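@here heads up, posting the sequence + SMILES for the fe (ii) ion run so it's all in one place. Ping me if the SMILES looks off, I pulled it from an old spreadsheet.
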Amino acid sequence: MTHKINKLQSTTGNQQPEIADPKPPRILVVDDDEQIRRLLGRMLDREGYAFTLAADGTEARKCLESQAFDLVLCDVNMPGESGIDLAGYIGSHYDNTALIMITGVDDPNVAQSAIDAGTYGYIIKPFNPNEVMINIRNVLRRRELEIANRKYRESLEQMVEERTVQLREAMEGIIRAMSLTIESRDPYTSGHQQRAARLVRAMAREMGFSREQTQGVYLGGMIHDIGKISVPAEILCKPGRLSDIEFSLIRLHPRIGYDILKEIEFPWPIAEMVYQHHERMDGSGYPRGLSGEDILLEARILGIADVVEAMSSRRPYRSALGVDSALAEISENSGKLYDPDAVKACLKLFRQKGFTFDQ
Ligand SMILES: [Fe+2]
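bot reply: prediction finished. Complex structure tokens:
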């Protein structure tokens, strides 16, 4: 049997409920028994609540669509959709609406299903009107606290997110500044780190790194030669061949870079990337002679980007060898000096995807 929605009253009565909200809480009563509906309506009216009556799940859904309710008082056994199913629907669609089951079904299993569906209370008919009212007040109070808690949590989360973005931007700015500082001493390699960083970022993307990991590799690339700060500028800029001592000074830069960065708690292994960027797959690199997978993957791809950029650019002691020579070098030594997957990604970028250092 279909019942019409019977709006007995939806305005405030004389007596205000104990809720701080200036507007009276709005309550939806869903029960197929008209007498019970009317009785609950009168009780709510006396207490000053705004309310709407619905005879079944279908009417209840229409009411919920047309206006917001703070609380639903719901029967369990009704023609059509059961109160438990309706409770589940309300729980998943209306975050701010609380629910109390009022039912003749005195069965702990049904009560448990109602609780599982997210109801705040379970009242068994025949009910005591005072008990119903006390339950309603408690539930509305609980709901208010929950909404306030949720809003507070959301605002905290948003604040944390904003601060994290600010910190991230500040950290990236500092890394850029460090990068420019090192390169300002060494005009010949000026821009080397930025260009190598752009290549290493593209390689990381090509190799399926996560966005987060890719950003770490990029920033590592930006400061991978930071240890050169301790190498005298005249050695860095020396046009001729380096002596053994000069070369051994240059070879210290990964370790010095590591020492500069190791105390900074980056969310990525940047200090290790810097430390390992001259290591080679066969153990012939420096400073520690690491080999194979003992070398961090990030450092393996950074090492390739470093070589390719360096060979493609002019140096004080030679003119640019060009990208083709650089690509020939890494493909000839793929697996021996360089990680084969990273070599493959680098070749694909230049030969198929049109990567250039000037983009
Ligand atoms: Fe280096």
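MO: The chain has two domains: 26-156, 185-351.
MO: One more: The CA atoms of residues 112 and 122 lie 9 Å apart.
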